[in-house]
């Protein structure tokens, strides 16, 4: 028996699986924590990304009261989102830079960097923050480290990926016991550069650090790592991580992808089990998911279970009553030998179908259920609508129903039509079958006529 579309649709292509992975990973690739305002500019993530490295306190030039007042004036403009006013104040300070020490110059450029960042002028912001770093030992260590982290972030936003990596590596060299965040960040930078092996190393390192510290391993870290292994076609790792995702972050998409990869790898039992788990948990509430699951159950030769799943989908309104979907349900009931349930489903499907194939199947069901007149009617509907794969077969079923209903003369007409079509199509098998029926009907007619004469 040829597979119904509901069965064929359950087989997920690699491209379909890849598309699904990509939709998930896009939520993870921009893991940029936006800088927040501090009193005089931008602060990055260094406080949460690592512990401060103990070292000799850096002696930096002090800030004069006049400089502090000017920076406070610029901050007031920033608070009002008057960025032009803030830049004017800060530029005037730089115009008198001979009066400023390295620490003060660094603070001015730091604030200008924040202004340009707020204006989404990332190139100018980067230039300003580089000026902060250029002040070297004259700026506080805290400002240096947060500026390095900010430079890494902004370089990422500006798609200067190599610069982002360089700044982050410098930051890590100055940090004590870095947390997972900088490694996750670098993993995402490598992802954007399509250097997937390097990205995998960093993401796994970030996850390892988080696990060691007993901190949360975030969902989007696993999602990105899973996608990277998918692109590398490391299916064992893909499945391993998907198992983690469905356990710790149970969602419909993860279950579908787990089932899809199992199917892609030829793990039919595991694929069905994954879909069954998702179905039991209530994640399969889309028409495509339900029909795919039913198709898998059909392939595993459990048509009764497939029919129950589809019937509930119709009942819950999750499956649209189309000819295709009804045909799938009808086929499941038929293969489960539930003829009484299959017939009304095929009757409903036939009313919606544009061709006669469903009526052709319905005629066969009526024949098996000894409903011969309905079988003839369904056969006529099938022939009238057309689109049949084998027209001869419809005539054979019709003729058999007519014969069983003691309509020998009309049955002979059906088999003659079948024989003529078979000759035309050079279909020797059906030509032989129909000729045998004609011969048998002729002999039976002769026998019945002889009996009638004897009486």
Sequence-ordered SSE layout with sheet pairings:
Layout lengths: L4 H4 L5 H12 L10 E3 L2 E3 L2 H4 L15 H15 L3 H13 L6 H17 L3 H12 L7 H17 L3 H14 L6 H12 L3 H18 L5 H13 L3 H14 L3 H13 L3 H13 L6 H13 L3 H13 L7 H13 L3 H14 L4 H12 L3 H14 L5 H14 L3 H17 L3 H27 L1
Helix pairs in contact: 2-12, 2-14, 4-5, 4-6, 5-6, 6-7, 7-8, 8-9, 9-10, 10-11, 11-12, 12-13, 13-14, 14-15, 15-16, 16-17, 17-18, 18-19, 19-20, 20-21, 20-22, 21-22, 22-23, 23-24
**Shape annotation:** rod-shaped
CATH architectural group of the domain at 1-7 and 249-352? Alpha Horseshoe
State the CATH class of the domain at 1-7 and 249-352. Answer: Mainly Alpha
Strands side by side in the biggest sheet: 1-2
The first-to-last residue Cα distance is: 47 Å
Note poorly predicted spans: 1-13, 21-48
Strand-pairing-aware structural class: mainly alpha
- Tell me the series of helices and strands, N- to C-terminal: HHEEHHHHHHHHHHHHHHHHHHHHHH
Percent range for helical residues? Answer: over 70%
Tell me the name of the CATH homologous superfamily of the domain at 1-7 and 249-352: Tetratricopeptide repeat domain
Determine the number of helices (DSSP H or I, runs of at least 4 residues). 24
Strand-residue proportion = under 5%
State the major sheet: 2 strands, antiparallel
Mean residue pLDDT: 87
């Amino acid at each position: 028996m040829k597979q119904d579309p509901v069965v064929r649709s359950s087989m997920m292509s690699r491209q379909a699986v890849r598309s699904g992975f990509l939709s998930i990973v896009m939520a993870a690739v921009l893991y940029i924590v936006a800088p927040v305002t501090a009193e005089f500019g931008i602060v990055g993530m260094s406080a949460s990304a690592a512990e401060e490295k103990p070292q000799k306190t850096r002696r930096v030039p002090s800030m004069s009261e006049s400089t502090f007042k000017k920076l406070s004036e610029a901050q007031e403009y920033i608070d009002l989102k008057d960025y032009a006013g803030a830049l004017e104040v800060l530029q005037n300070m730089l115009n008198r830079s001979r009066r400023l020490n390295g620490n003060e110059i660094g603070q001015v450029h730091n604030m200008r960097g924040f202004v340009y960042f707020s204006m989404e002028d990332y190139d100018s912001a980067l230039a300003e923050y580089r000026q902060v770093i250029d002040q070297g030992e004259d700026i506080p260590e805290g400002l240096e480290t947060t500026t390095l982290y900010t430079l890494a972030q902004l370089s990422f936003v500006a798609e200067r990926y190599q610069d982002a990596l360089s700044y982050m590596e410098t930051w890590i060299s100055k940090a004590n016991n870095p947390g997972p965040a900088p490694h996750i960040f670098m993993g995402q930078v490598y992802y954007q550069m399509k250097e997937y092996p390097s990205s995998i190393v960093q993401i796994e390192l970030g996850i390892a650090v988080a696990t060691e510290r007993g901190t949360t391993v975030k969902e989007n870290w696993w999602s990105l790592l899973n996608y990277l292994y998918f692109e590398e076609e490391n299916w064992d790792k893909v499945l391993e991580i998907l198992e983690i995702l469905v356990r710790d972050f149970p969602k419909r998409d993860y279950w579908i992808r787990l089932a899809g990869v199992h199917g892609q790898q030829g793990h039919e039992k595991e694929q069905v089990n994954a879909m069954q788990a998702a179905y039991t948990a209530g994640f399969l509430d889309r028409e495509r998911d339900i029909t795919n699951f039913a198709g898998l159950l059909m392939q595993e030769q459990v048509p009764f279970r497939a029919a129950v799943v589809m019937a509930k989908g119709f009942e819950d309104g999750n499956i649209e009553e189309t000819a295709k979907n009804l045909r799938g349900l009808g086929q499941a009931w038929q293969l489960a030998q539930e003829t009484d349930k299959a017939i009304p489903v095929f009757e409903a499907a036939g009313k919606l179908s544009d061709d006669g194939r469903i009526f052709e199947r319905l005629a066969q069901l009526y024949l098996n259920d000894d409903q011969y007149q309905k079988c003839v009617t369904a056969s006529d509907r099938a022939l009238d609508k057309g689109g049949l794969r084998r027209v001869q077969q419809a005539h054979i079923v019709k003729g058999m129903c007519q014969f069983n209903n003691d309509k020998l003369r009309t049955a002979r007409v059906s088999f003659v039509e079948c024989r003529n079509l078979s000759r035309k199509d050079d279909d020797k098998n059906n030509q032989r079958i129909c000729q045998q029926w004609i011969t048998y009907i002729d002999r039976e007619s002769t026998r019945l006529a002889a009996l009638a004469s004897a009486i």
